[in-house]
Structure formats: structure tokens, C-alpha cells
Amino acid sequence: MKQTRTILAALLGATLLATPSLADEIKIGVVGPLTGPAATSGIAMREAYQFVADQVNAEGGVEMNGEKHTLNLIFEDSASRPEMGVSAAQKLLTRDNVDLLIGDTFASSVTIALMDVAASYGKFVMSGQPVSSEIARKVESNPEQFANFWKSSWNSDAYAQAVFEAVEGLTEAGKFSPGDKKIAFVFEDTDYGKSNTEYALPLFKDAGWTETGHEAVPLGHSDFYPQLSKLRGNAPDVLVSIFTSVNSGIALTKQIKETGLETLHVAIYYPLRPEFHEGVGADSENMLWTPMLFDPVNNEKHKALYELLGAKGITGNGDHAQGYCQFAMLVDNMKRAGTVEPAKLSEAFATTDFDCYTGRFVYDTANHTPKIGAEFLPVAVAQVQDGVSKAVWPETSATAEFK
């Protein structure tokens, strides 16, 4: 793998030493949850995008074909609701006449809803964190309609694969004994929650596991006592929970302890939010979670980004890290394309090879999704040990042994 290039140089290029010659601004519309159950993530993404834009603008703008263009980001709230996201996208594409659109920064259901609408306006569209595999399937099913739509995060099967490989790998290594190999799922009733469950369950079944619980709950749900009562009777060896709402994760984790359910709790997404650990306290001890995208304590590259953000008063977390690298990658591709014209910008995305703090962006051009793996974007599984999250799987990313 080629040596990681300096991020700021990748964004701004060698021409920063010259006096910038300003031209028209590039207007970028951004749709994401600024209110509602996922607002903390949406706001963090907004901060990260704006941070990169401010870096670029401080040096006169992004250079395309010898001219400097400043970046003007226009943010609209989706509240994680598809109908609000579609309305926000229409406003940005018509009234604001943005040059390109990012949507949704977080919610898969919103991205799926606005894909068809955005395609009709002939503008380039990129999503942020959404991982639902349904997005990739839409691209594959109609490559002409979605030729100018690209994801900036992997597919949801990456999380399912990470959870499965961690549980099976730890079992094979003799570090975890699953007993009867029974597994249960508690997940939010969204595209994100359902798609993660949809991909994880067959992997476990093919390996001889039996599903003993399948509980879908509304977004933001907080009373899990009925679900846990049923699960105690079924006694799963592993309980997989999937939420984008941090409050749901806090409630479930606390109630698992309160009800005395003995299981290996494996969480998807919400523990990457610092407010989860602040809210749940010691009740998260020994739980597993993925994806561990940002570890500034043990990872020197992550530490460098944390300090860069901190210099501007931003306490960086996993959402900030993803947002920073996604937007930096977009800017780099605009530079290489020399334009925001959709077809040419899409050509640049198809040949992306961009190293950032969180990993290396290279695309699967069949579904417009970044590749995952040790050489690309890693999806690590962490365990909470003595109140601190440490990567325990895969071995190439591990900073601690599983307890």
C-alpha cells in the first residue's frame, strides 16, 4: 500500500504557496439529521465537513483547472425522516441551486428515499455514513440512473461480517465458549437495523447457530423489559443489538444488567458515540461493539486527527473522523476531476485512491461503495475493558486481548 500522503497537502495541493486567484464559489448542499434521535451524529458530521471546507477556504479555495473556488456548504435538516430529507434535497437542488448534493449524512432510509429524486436533477450526489446494502443494490440494479451517485461508507454487510468473524474467531481461539450457540437480535426498525440483521443472521445460521430472539423496536425506543423478559427464557449465548439512537443503546445495556441476562452483548454502531459510555457507566463492561473507527489513544493517525480537530475546539469522535475523511476525499476528487460536472466527477470517484486518517478509499465500481479490509477501510471490533474500549478483533487491528 502506498505511503499515506499528508492530508492537508492532498486537499490543497502544492499551489498553496501561490497567491490564490478566486473564482466563483462551489455550492454544496448537505442533508442530515440536525434534530431528532440521530442529531448528535448529524451535527458531528456537519462540524467535520465544515472543518475541511474552512481549511480549504482559508487557503483561497480548491483549485480546479488553474482557478481557485471557495466552498459554500448549505445544511438542511432531515431529522432522520425520509420525507423531510426529500423535501430538504428538493430545496437545495431548486431554490439554492447547489452544484452537488450530499445526502443523507447519516440515515440510510433518507438516502434511499432521496436517491430517485436527486437523480432527476442531473447533479452529482454522495452519501455520508449510510451503509444499508439496499443503496448499493439500487446502484447495481440501475447503473445508468445512478451513474452519478456514490457512497462514502461501506455496506451494512461489513458490520455483519465483522460481528460474525469476531464471535467465531474468538470461539475458535478458545477465548469464548458459546454453549448451545444460540443468538438473538434486538434492532431498530429502520433500514439500518434491518439490513444489519438481514446479513448477520445467515452467517451465524450457516455456522450452526440458532436464532432464539428477533426483536424489532421503533427508532428511539427505550423500554426493553418486555423483550428482555422473553430473551431470559430463551437464554441466548450472544445478543446482537443495532441502534443509531444512543439513548436506545444506553437503555438496553442498563436493562440487560438490571434483569440479570447472562449473554455476550455485541453492539453495532451506538457505542462509538462518547455519550453512550458517559450515560451507561460500568454497565457496558466486557461488551463487544463495532465499528471502532476512531481510537486516538492507541492509534497514532487517529491521535493526529483528534489533535487537529481539538485545535479548533472540536472534541473529535468517530462521526467526526468519518465526516472529515469523506469530505476530504470529495475535495480531492473535485481537484482531480477539475470540475463538478457530474460525469467527470464520477470518473474521478471511480479511480479514487485516497489515504486518510481512517483508512484508504478505493471503490468497488459495480456498486459505488468503498472497499473494506486491512488495506482499505478497516472495520474493527472493540471490547470495553475497565471502562475503556480497546480493539480486540481482527488481530491486525487489535490493541488488546479479549477478556
Short précis:
This protein is an alpha/beta fold. The chain is built from 13 helices and 18 strands. Strands 9-8-10-11-12-17-18 form a 7-stranded mixed beta sheet, with helices on both faces. Strands 4-1-5-6-7 form a 5-stranded parallel beta sheet, sandwiched between helices. A two-stranded antiparallel sheet has the order 2-3.
Shape: globular
Kindly, what is the distance between the CA atoms of the first and last residues, rounded to a whole number of angstroms?
32 Å
Chain-averaged pLDDT:
92
Q: What level of helicity do the residues show?
A: 40-55%
Whole-angstrom Rg: 21 Å
Classified in CATH, the superfamily of the largest domain is Response regulator
Instruction: Tell me the structural class.
Output: alpha/beta
Major beta sheet summary = 7 strands, mixed
Report what the structure shows.
Helix 4 links the parallel strand 5 and strand 6. The longest helix is centred in the N-terminal third of the chain and has 20 residues, at 39-58. The chain has 403 residues and is an alpha/beta fold. The chain starts with 6 loop residues before the first helix and ends in a 10-residue tail after the last strand. The strands form 5 sheets. Strands 9-8-10-11-12-17-18 form a 7-stranded mixed β-sheet, with helices on both faces. It has a 5-stranded parallel β-sheet with strand order 4-1-5-6-7, sandwiched between helices. It has 2 domains: 7-154 and 297-370, Response regulator (Rossmann fold, 3-Layer(aba) Sandwich), CATH 3.40.50.2300; 157-296 and 379-393, Rossmann fold (3-Layer(aba) Sandwich). Mean pLDDT is 92; it is low at 1-23. The protein has helices at residues 7-12, 39-58, 82-94, 108-119, 133-141, 157-172, 191-206, 225-234, 246-259, 274-280, 300-310, 318-337, 342-350; strands at residues 26-32, 62-64, 67-69, 71-77, 100-103, 124-126, 149-150, 182-188, 210-217, 238-243, 264-269, 288-290, 354-356, 359-361, 363-364, 369-370, 381-385, 388-393. The chain has 13 helices and 18 strands.
